[in-house]
Task: structure prediction
Amino acid sequence: MTYKTIIAEIDETIGLITLNRPQVLNALSNQLGGELTQALSDFENNHALGAIVITGNEKAFAAGADIAEMKDQSYIDAYQGGATCNLEDALSKCRKPVIAAVSGYALGGGCELAMMCDFIIASESAKFGQPEINLGILPGWGGTQRLTRLIGKSKAMDMCLTGRMMDAAEAERCGLVSRVVEKDKFMDQVISIAKLVASKSLPALMMNKECINQAMETSLHDGLLFERRQFQAAFATADQKEGMAAFVEKRKPHWMHR
Ligand code: CO8
Result:
């Protein structure tokens, strides 16, 4: 499918989505939200793919929602929402691993989009922030909620109330990103990490993802019970049998993804 605001490509076992509005630092317009939702759904339904990467360009992952598009919106426009709202649903329902690869600015809705993904890999040049306070508003796409869960109340307050940016090193220190990669090797490294993920058993990936997401939503007691049940269910898969047999036989597993 041809898109106007993103590029969607397949690289062997991974789906790669590049936000592509460089003239406005990949500001997230409604059209981009719709196209990204469509590409995610196509990759989710493509059985040949085991992981999805969302990225931008060297200067910006995304500098937020499109302010020019948003500025005259009324309460009812905001309430009814647009394609960007559907994108949040699509991402939260996506069962395959989704990696955000962030270079340059990830601000406002850009930072929120990255946090909706399963984990964030940052280039040394990445800059994260929730600058909505400077526009007289607040984050509206999970910035006060996901950021607080990821980095804690004090730092989330600092970020949202000052509107300052944090660099990649600080983002790694406080747990916003899983790792920081050298600028020159950034996309090569991201792709090899995504392919490593995609080389695993898909049902096992999905069960891991589901359990970790559950940890963000529930008590430790209920989360442990949820994990225990998923662990038990894993013994009903062909891939559990294959994975353990391959270990004992000292060979590589051949996943059936069943
Ligand atoms: N929206 C629209 N256009 C933008 C945006 C944006 N978010 N960010 C940058 N641009 C445009 C600029 O207007 C400029 O366009 P032009 O060349 O036509 O003047 C072009 O991109 C390049 O930007 P700059 O000239 O400003 O580049 P600088 O390198 O000088 O500065 C910054 C880079 C610091 C990133 C600066 O562009 C900036 O501050 N951008 C805005 C950041 C921001 O406030 N983001 C938050 C937006 S609000 C939001 O995201 C709420 C999300 C809620 C979603 C809810 C959905 C349901």
Observations:
- The beta strands are 6-11, 14-19, 51-55, 60-62, 98-102, 105-107, 119-123, 127-129, 165-167, 179-181.
- The first strand starts at residue 6 and ends at 11.
